[in-house]
Amino acid sequence: MASQKRIAKELADCTTNPPAGMSISLANDSDVHKWHVVLDGPPDSVYAGGKFGIIVSLPSEYPFKAPVVTFATRIYHPNITNDSLGNICLSILKPENWKPASRLLAVLEAVRALLIEPQPDDPLEGRIADEYRRERKEFEKNAKTYVTRYAKGPVKFDVLAAAAAAAPASNTSS
Amino acid sequence: MIMSTTVNEIRNAVLLLSNPYWELPTPGTTVTNITAKHSDITYSTRISGNITVLAPRTTPDTGGLLYVPDLPPDDVCAKRAEPFVPASVVRLSGLPPTDNYNLIALAPWISSTCSKKYMDAASRAPIRALIFYRPNNSSATPPHATSAVWEINGSTRWRAKSPYLVFAVPGLAGQNMMRQLSLYSGDVTEVPFAQNISEIYAPYTGDYVRIWTDLDVSTTGALFGIWVYFLIIIAVLIAIISGTSLTMHLAQVGRRVSLRRRVISGDVNLEAMGIRRVTVPMTEIQKFPLYTYRYEPSESGATPREPPETLRRSPSNSAHAQDPPEDAGEKQSHPQHTGSRTPLAIATDPQPICTICLEHFQNRTTVIREIPCGHIFHPECIDEFLGEVSSLCPICRASMLPKRYCPKITNDMVRREFAIRRFRHTTRYEDGQETPPVSAREHGPALDGLPMEDGGEALPRRWRRLRSRVFPGY
Ligand SMILES: [Zn+2]
Ligand SMILES: [Zn+2]
Predict the structure, then answer these.
(1) By three-state DSSP, how is residue B173 classified?
(2) What region holds the UBC core domain (chain A) (predicted)?
(3) Looking at beta carbons, which residues of chain A come within 8 Å of B438?
(4) Which of B50, B82, B87, B429 keeps 20 to 30 A from B224, CA to CA?
(5) Cβ count within 10 A of residue B189
């Protein structure tokens, strides 16, 4: 299987015609298996104005195995762990849901959609999910505080990239 | 456990004991079994089957020289025994020095008092056993050991105290032994057939010709009983253990068979349930047809051998695998896949690329494999996927397993399937609540889209955690 070839194709598609509010690059030019994505907080969401670093790791078995997506930037969100790992719970990435026909473009768009519309019924952060459901004002305030604190200025991947690489297994829980 | 002794048989024979060197430090004794060599000129008898053991004792299967214990000459019992015990019977004084021999005592049971005296007298000699008989001319088995006949001072407690084996033979047999004992006494010239014995063996005058009694005794003692007891316990334990494991094994086999049946019937999809990755056997993959890709929208309807529209399905209404329409002519000699479409077909599924590698198919050039759901791929792409990764179509997740196919079911799979079924059951129950309390939401099930294509079913988070735990490599 020409895994490299397919990744290169997808990378070309994503860079020439990037999805809305995203810029995509390789973490390291010689390795197509790790992507760095900078996502602009969707304008109509509480994350507007922030810039979020997202790391996409493609396993060597890709596309037979799902990519691993983590947030390098701290974010206050029911479906993203509120820690330095930034694990994200995305239905399309679950092993039992992943299909080789799924594209990274669709994955990234799903991530963006999750910022616009969190899924509190399937939370990684139960407390934030409850707050989102019951005290939306409080949630919005907290989320915006996080944006101000963590998602302003240049996006940094390095520190959290190392953390994510050190604990890749934790992604399987979502 | 009660010790039990059985005297199976008494064998009497006549021995010639030659002791010419008694004065030497190590007396040499020559023992000749005359009965064994010349049964025609000697006495012998066997008593078996009608012997009653009175005082059971463990004793080796050897015998001894037969004699009658001495009662004190002035004892009343000696007087009373006279009619039954001839004066010439072998007494202790009529035997060779008993350092070298064991003895068997013979006495009539005249009365309990006299029997007691015989037993006391017998215990002063190295005897193996004491044989009683009731002088009643009976050939029947003597009464049972617990019978009042054998009471001394109103009880049979003596039986437990006796230092040696005591048993009774029928009256007739005892009387006969007593008579023979009176014959084989005295010196070698006085015994029956003394002439013949003298001619054959030329014994010395100081030699003895005496009756030897062999005993065939079998004992099941306390020790043996304990062993039997242990053996029974061990046997029972083994039976319980093997029975339990057999039952468990059978139960496991039963559950495997049940799961297998449900897999074959289609009720359970091992892979869609996340129980186990299943791959398609390569021989099955090879059966999926190969075609040359052809896609010529401008020539719609130009190809007469075009497959019916049903062949091309939209990925969204995929669900079930369906055999591609038979097109025998095409399949036999490297069939041509007529990718040409009517406008409807183009709209639903042109499939211009292989969704695994994202390469475009080249019209009239690329060889593609069509799998039962109707989706097409490069053979090298789809073969590896179905053969090594998953049995589900990469596009529509329809199962590509042959009908009634089931991989080897393991106990582990049975456990996982059971766990998932149980979790589903609890989920259904919990989902019944319109608005679960907050605490339940935090710790209980949280809903999630499900593995199925359309995400129609909701799963608890717990289940997802379970799945990732039971199926880490997924
Ligand atoms: Zn391909
Ligand atoms: Zn399909």
Answers:
(1) helix
(2) 2-152
(3) 130
(4) B50
(5) 12
Architecture of domain A2-158: Roll (3.10)
Residue B22 confidence (pLDDT): 53
Q: Which of B14-18, B166-170, B206-210, B462-466 has the lowest mean pLDDT?
A: B462-466
Ligand closest to Cα of B385 equals 1
Identify all chain A residues contacting B461, using CB atoms and an 8 Å cutoff: 122
Q: How far apart are CA A84 and CA A87, in angstroms?
A: 9
Q: What are phi and psi of B221, to 5 degrees?
A: -90, -175
Q: How far does the CA of residue B459 sit from the closest CA of chain A (Å)?
A: 9
pLDDT tens sequence across A60-85: 888 888 999 999 999 999 999 988 88
Q: Are B131 and B168 in contact (CB under 8 A)?
A: yes
Q: What are B138's two structure tokens?
A: 């009976």
Sorted by sequence, the CB contacts under 8 Å of residue B370 that are 6+ apart come out as: B288, B289, B290, B291, B324, B337, B376
The answer to whether the CB atoms of A6 and B358 lie below 8 A apart is yes
Tens-place pLDDT, residues B136-158: 988 999 999 888 889 988 888 88
Cis amide linkage into residue B304, ω under 30° from 0: no
Q: Cβ contact (<8 Å) for A130 and B442?
A: yes
Give the predicted TM-score (pTM) of the model: 0.49
Any bridge partners for residue B336, and if so which?
Answer: B292
CA B21 to chain centre: 62
Going from the Cα of A1 to the center of ligand 1, the distance in angstroms, rounded, reads 8
Distance of CA A67 to the CA centre of its chain: 11
What whole-number distance in Å separates Cα of residue B175 and Cα of residue B91?
16
| Residues in chain A within 8 Å Cβ distance of B441 | 126, 129-130
Side chain identity at residue A119, one-letter code: Q
- CB–CB contact A99 B397 (8 Å): yes
Locate the domains of chain B by residue range.
Answer: 6-218, 219-267, 282-389, 411-470
| Residue in B315, B451, B465 closest to A96 by CB | B451
The ipTM assigned to this model is: 0.76
B interface residues, A as partner, C-beta within 8 Å: 272, 274, 315, 355-359, 380-381, 384-385, 389-390, 392, 394-395, 397, 438, 441-442, 446-449, 451, 455, 461, 464-465, 467-468, 471-472, 474
